[in-house]
Design brief:
With 392 residues, the chain is mainly β. The chain is built from five helices and 22 strands. The protein has one domain (4-386): monomeric porin ompg (Porin, Beta Barrel), CATH 2.40.160. The protein has helices at residues 4-17, 44-47, 62-65, 292-298, 306-312; strands at residues 76-85, 96-107, 112-122, 126-129, 135-139, 142-154, 158-170, 174-176, 179-181, 184-198, 207-218, 221-222, 230-231, 236-245, 251-262, 269-272, 278-284, 314-324, 328-336, 346-355, 358-367, 377-386.
């Protein structure tokens, strides 16, 4: 029999490996989700700008952050990304990897577009043991998501996109206290709105852009045969923008900023028993057992700490990209999440090159000293675009 504590520790460990939400350690009151790999940005280009995604010029990887951008990305494009998480471990069985494929095609004079993408996240091998330390089984958790997108322009400057997503999250199998753990599946969708405008009478073209995206809005995940223990998807609101300015015909700088808010319940404050363990009685906050639809609205005012705690649930990204002749790219950025709400904080740097529609990008993620996730990460992306409006 696999013990309950072992299962919970394994799941918490997987989330920690991903640098995502974890157990309540270091005073953290993180928003707990299932399929947390959906929060990981797979694109090396925007990872180099601190995950400030919205304001970058559109490409195939725009399907991740705000799919409405693809109608501004040219005729068609494809991209492949890879992130060797925990690449510095000597034991290859413990390493975590993420792969991402994306493609889009515009039609009707670039007024409409369709796109498809797939994310695949594989965790290192997990060893299940009983209370005596005896090995019971080995399991390699895997998660993936498959997306289909339709986007269209709303006039010359605006666009709208709708994405449908199938999610599969397999974190382990076994039983404890009469409950059977199993892989979980869900359906979700995204809605994105985007706008960009180029300054008139300027051959170089200063560019202003902004966007809003609601992502991972869908059904809950059920990892056990108990229907009362379902997990929320990481439903998210992203608002961001960018400003590209050109000093000469050869040089371009783009300033970027995004903010994010998870649209899921905030953990309430529970009454403690005589042993200091939480009971089911809620002292402050709102019962997290609610529907996804209700959570989309109540997540803005359900934190037990009031307005101050709600503000802490917003994360922020800021970045800068320098471009030379639209062939050489240098990037830097910073991502901030409050210490009590996940404590993901990191600097990032990136480089890239683009020649005749073919591009290669790399990003290096450097966590700050106090960040809960302490492993440095590399990300790589290759892409090919035809007829892009970004100068290549």
């Amino acid at each position: 029999m696999i013990q309950k504590s072992t299962i919970l520790l394994c799941v918490a460990g997987l989330l920690s490996q991903s640098g995502l939400v974890t157990a309540q350690t270091k005073g953290i009151k993180a928003l707990n989700t299932g399929a947390s790999f959906l929060m990981v940005n797979p694109d090396a280009r925007s990872s180099g700008t601190g995950d400030a995604i919205t304001g970058l010029e559109a490409d195939a990887n725009s399907l991740f952050g705000n799919a409405a951008k693809i109608v501004f990305a040219g005729d068609w494009g494809v991209s492949a990304s890879y992130a060797p998480w925990m690449w510095d471990l000597n034991n290859s069985d413990q390493r975590t990897n993420m792969g991402y494929l994306a493609a889009f095609k515009n039609f009707n004079n670039n007024e409409e577009a369709v796109g498809v993408s797939m994310r695949y996240f594989t965790n290192g091998t997990i060893i299940f043991r009983d209370d005596n330390g005896t090995e019971l089984q080995r399991y390699k958790p895997r998660e993936y998501a498959i997306d289909a997108t339709y986007a269209r322009k709303l006039g010359a400057r605006y666009s709208l996109a709708i994405t449908l997503r199938y999610i599969r999250s397999d974190l382990g199998q076994g039983s404890y206290n009469g409950l059977q753990q199993k892989p979980a599946s869900a359906m979700a969708g995204d809605i994105g709105l985007y706008s960009q405008n180029y300054a008139k009478n300027d051959p170089a073209g200063n560019r202003y852009s902004w966007g809003i995206a609601f992502t991972n809005i869908g059904s809950k995940l059920n990892y056990t045969d108990d229907n009362d223990r379902k997990a929320f998807l990481p439903a998210n609101l992203r608002i961001g923008g960018g400003y590209s300015f050109v000093n000469t015909i050869e040089h371009q700088f783009t300033l970027l900023a995004d903010i994010n808010k998870l649209l899921i319940p905030s953990p309430p404050t529970y009454q403690l028993d005589a042993n200091g363990q939480p009971t089911s009685e809620i002292l402050d906050g709102k019962d997290p057992n609610r529907s996804m639809t209700e959570s989309l609205f109540t997540s803005f005012w359900d934190a037990p700490g009031g307005f101050q705690e709600e503000i802490r649930e917003f994360s922020a990204s800021a970045g800068l990209e320098y471009t030379y002749q639209h062939q050489l790219f240098i990037r830097t950025g910073y991502f901030y999440e409050h210490p009590q709400k996940g404590y993901r904080q990191h600097f990032s740097a990136g480089v890239g090159t683009r020649i005749k529609g073919f591009s290669v990008d790399m990003a290096y993620i450097m966590p700050t000293a106090n960040s809960i996730y302490q492993r440095r990460t590399l990300k790589f992306s290759v892409a090919y675009h035809i007829g892009a409006t970004t100068g290549n």
